[in-house]
């Protein structure tokens, strides 16, 4: 798994940025280190590192899935990542249209609210 971990670290930094990863690693404790290793290897070292689809497409899918499953707390992080993945505001809006139809208007509405807030913060930075 060392290869998946190293690939995961590189992919995570490419998508989320060094500052985000450095902050997350600084907060890692003995309690959550196994979890952090798991997501680094599995999510970032396997799924996000796959060349089966583009980072842009993966970004849109991830935001839609987070919204559809009500996991809104990670949406701002993935909206910020669109600056690196190439997913545009239009891409995100289109993905959330699908969420509204297939998973529910309230979830899509809340995700759009978070996206708007995050984009405003990004523009102000």
UniProtKB/TrEMBL annotation:
Residues 35-116 form the Carboxymuconolactone decarboxylase-like domain. SUPFAM superfamilies: AhpD-like. InterPro entries: 4CMD/NDH-1_regulator, AhpD-like, CMD-like, Decarb_PcaC. Its EC number is 4.1.1.44. Keywords: Lyase. GO terms for molecular function: 4-carboxymuconolactone decarboxylase activity. The keyword Cell inner membrane does not apply. It is an enzyme of class 4 (lyase). It comes from the Bacteria. This is 4-carboxymuconolactone decarboxylase. It comes from Marivivens donghaensis. The gene is pcaC.
